[in-house]
Design goal:
There is one protein chain. By secondary structure, the protein is an alpha+beta fold. The protein has three helices and four strands; from the N terminus they run H-E-H-E-H-E-E. The protein has one domain: Translation Initiation Factor IF3 (2-Layer Sandwich). Helix content is 39%, strand content 21%. It has a four-stranded mixed sheet with strand order 1-2-4-3, with helices on both faces. Helix 2 links the parallel strand 1 and strand 2.
């Protein structure tokens, strides 16, 4: 579980990031989860976009993805959200 200080630090890091995944009409698929899981292991912090043609709400998509990838939501703004999961060989040093 992230503290508010850690969440603020991660929000600051994610500010300039571009989304690397888009959730579209198909919604949250097993292939998407696998790709996100791999990206989290490589980057630890990623940003995603939920397209307008997706039938699900942004927060529910975020909850599904975080529960299936065992990650933490950092923030949800509009149709974009950021998630974090510490990698086995972590390269991000977040405050304690």
């Amino acid at each position: 579980m992230l503290t508010s200080k850690q969440r603020a630090f991660l929000r600051k890091m994610a500010h300039d990031m571009d989304p690397i995944f888009q959730v579209g009409k198909a919604g949250v698929t097993p292939d998407l989860i696998k790709a996100i899981d791999d990206a989290l292991e490589a980057r630890e912090l990623i940003k995603l976009t939920v397209l307008k043609n997706c039938e699900e709400e942004v927060r529910s998509v975020c909850e599904k993805i975080t529960s299936r990838t065992h990650s933490e939501p950092v923030q949800v703004i509009g149709r974009k959200f950021t998630i974090y999961r510490q990698a086995k060989e972590s390269h991000l040093e977040i405050p304690v």
